[in-house]
Write a structure and sequence with these properties.
The protein contains 15 helices and nine strands. The protein is of the alpha/beta class. The chain is globular and about 50 Å long.
Length: about 350
C-alpha cells in the first residue's frame, strides 16, 4: 500500500477512536435548499420560496479544510443540487483538487445536464418511488418517471459504464408495489437500488417542527398493514434472489427485513433495529446556508461563513458532542433511517 494511503488509514482509525477528527472521508454539500418535486413524505419543497444556496466563495473556502482533512469524496445533496446555476462551476473547483463527486438528484433534469454530469460527476444516485404512475403520484410531478428514465438513458448513451443507482423510501404509499419498483429500476437501466424507511420523527428535511401524529400517520405503514408488509418482504427475498446475490438490490435480505422492524417499532411492537453508525466521525453536512451538521439529523455545530470546516468539526463543542454521543442509545440515532457506517478504508457513500 502506498505510504500516503497507509497514513490516511491510520488517521481514520484514530479519528474513529478519539474525539478529534483527523480525516473526514466524506463531505456532504447542499448547493441549493429548494427542490423541483413535491414529495408526499418530504417537506423540503415547502421552503422553496425562501431558498438558500451555496456560493462559489463558500466552495473556495472549503478547499483548505478538505485538503487538511484528506477528504476523498464530496456528495452533492439537497434539495436538488442542480437548481444551483453554479453547480458545475462548484464541481470544476472540486475536481481540480482530485475529489470524487457523487450527485444525489430527483432525476428530472439529468437529460438537460447530461454532458456536464459526465464531465464533472463520478456517479449519480437518483430517487425512485414506484413504477411510472406511482412515481409521478408520490413526486406530485406529471412526467417525473419519464424524465428520470430519459435522464438515465442520456447518461448511459454518452458513457455506457457511467454509474447510476437509485434510492427508494418505502412507506404507506408504495410498499404494496415494492416488487414493481425493483422491476422499474431494472427496466430503465439503473445499476442498483437501495431501500430505506421513511423518516417521520426528526426535524430534518426542512421541518420547522417535528411532524404531528396525524402527519406521521399519513406516511407510516399502519399497524394493521404490517402483516402485508412482512409478506411482501418474504416475496421479494424469494422472487428477487438473483438481484440480492448480484447486489442489484444493495441491501442484504436481513437488512431489508429491518424495514419491517422499523415500522413495527413505530407502533410500539418491537425495538427499533440495531445499527452501527459513525457518520459524525467520518462525514459532515454543509447546508445551503453554510450551516454544518454532523449528519442530516443532528443540530448544527457552526457555519462555514463564520469559521472553517476543520475548525467547526474539531471545536471543543463538537469534540464534546462526539465524546458524549452514543448512537445505540441516542433517541435521534435510535429512530434514524439513513445511518452511515464506514470502516477505516471505505469511502463508499
Amino acid at each position: 500500500m502506498h505510504r500516503q494511503s497507509v497514513l490516511h488509514t491510520i488517521k481514520r482509525y484514530m479519528s474513529l477512536r478519539g474525539g478529534k477528527v483527523s480525516v473526514l472521508p466524506i463531505a456532504i454539500l447542499m448547493p441549493h435548499s429548494a427542490c423541483n418535486c413535491r414529495c408526499v413524505m418530504c417537506d423540503i419543497w415547502k421552503g422553496n420560496k425562501n431558498a438558500k444556496q451555496l456560493t462559489e466563495e463558500d466552495i473556495q473556502s472549503l478547499l483548505t479544510s478538505l485538503k487538511q482533512l484528506d477528504t476523498k469524496r464530496v456528495v452533492m445533496s439537497g434539495g436538488e443540487a442542480l437548481l444551483n446555476k453554479n453547480f458545475f462551476r462548484f464541481c470544476e473547483i472540486l475536481k481540480q483538487k482530485d475529489l470524487k463527486i457523487t450527485l444525489l438528484s430527483t432525476g428530472l433534469t439529468l437529460d438537460r445536464h447530461a454532458e456536464n454530469i459526465i464531465r464533472y460527476v463520478d456517479d449519480v444516485i437518483v430517487s425512485l418511488d414506484g413504477d411510472r404512475e406511482l412515481h409521478d403520484e408520490i413526486r406530485n410531478i406529471k412526467g417525473a418517471f419519464d424524465a428520470l428514465a430519459e435522464g438515465v438513458k442520456a447518461l448511459k448513451v454518452r458513457k455506457p459504464g457511467f454509474p447510476v443507482a437509485a434510492r427508494c423510501v418505502i412507506h404507506r404509499f408504495n410498499f404494496k408495489k415494492w416488487n414493481h419498483i425493483i422491476t422499474a429500476a431494472k427496466n430503465i437501466g439503473l445499476d442498483s437500488i437501495s431501500f430505506l424507511p421513511a423518516d417521520v420523527t426528526s426535524q430534518a428535511f426542512n421541518r420547522e417542527t417535528a411532524w404531528s401524529t396525524e402527519r406521521q400517520d399519513d406516511v407510516l405503514i399502519h399497524r394493521e398493514q404490517l402483516p402485508e408488509l412482512e409478506a411482501m418482504i418474504r416475496k421479494l427475498i424469494t422472487a428477487f434472489k438473483p438481484e440480492f446475490e448480484n447486489r442489484f438490490i444493495a441491501e442484504s435480505p436481513q437488512k431489508i427485513q429491518k424495514i419491517y422492524q422499523y415500522y413495527s417499532a413505530q407502533h410500539g411492537l418491537s425495538a427499533f433495529p440495531e445499527k452501527a453508525c459513525n457518520a459524525p466521525w467520518v462525514s459532515a453536512v454543509v447546508e445551503a446556508d453554510g450551516a454544518v451538521r454532523p449528519c442530516f439529523f443532528h443540530d448544527s455545530l457552526g457555519s462555514i461563513r463564520e469559521a472553517s470546516l476543520a475548525e467547526i468539526i474539531n471545536s471543543p463543542e463538537s469534540r464534546d458532542y462526539r465524546k458524549k454521543l452514543n448512537t445505540q442509545t441516542n433517541e435521534t440515532c435510535e429512530k434514524c433511517v439513513c445511518y452511515l457506517n464506514l470502516n477505516a478504508r471505505s469511502t463508499t457513500y
